[in-house]
Amino acid sequence: MSNSRVFEGKRALILGVANERSLAWAVAQHLHQGGAELGFTYLGEALERRVRPLAESVKSPLIESCNVANDAEIDALFARVKAKWDTLDILVHSVAFANREDLEGRFVNTSREGFRVALDISAYSLVAVARRAEPLMEGRDGTILTMSYYGAEKVVPNYNVMGVAKAALEASVRYLAYDMGQKKIRVNAISAGPVKTLAVAGIRDFRSMLASAAEKTPLKENISADDVGALSAFLCGPGGKHITGSTLYVDSGAHIMGA
To answer: Which of 17, 40, 157, 218 could crosslink 55 through cysteines, CB 3.0-4.6 Å?
Structure first.
């Protein structure tokens, strides 16, 4: 992890930390190491018990509840962000959800409600939080980051409706980047290789997927959450100054391989 204080004086809001193995927490650690002041959100008491100690370990002044499926809660979150900070430099969106039954069996059996929930929480929530963040980021060379996966562009068995949601998320990144570029706000996605996190617990056969993934990559190894954190720090820092609307891969090259 770099010792450079490139984020000194910057403020970052992190959505989606679940525990110390979360990709969002790896991102937070790199931003903190670079000198950024961090704020965090959580959903419900169970996650608060996991998130609050992590947030306190980096002296976060902002630890707030937010359900991204509820506009009133998003509005309340950003009102508190504005009251505490008045500006925002970095927004990390690492939020996704699909009903467990929609991550098993055949995609064709996805229910209408299951489809709506997956797209709302996993894709539309980025649009919703970006809209609220925009006035706080304007003119500050702001950066918005979200997390995707290869299942957005190719079929990954058992990823099902989440793959469709991630495809919508990546398309949203491009449209948001166009909209917000004139205000010098950059929007990008990171497509990470498989990492054992709480978020993948609902994907059937994930352990076997993880075990076989390394052999299918040019580098013959899986990535770590820290790799995602390092790429995020690059994108949020000077090196990412002219990168926007992109999905960048950190997957040991898995995305270049054919069958």
So the answer is: 40
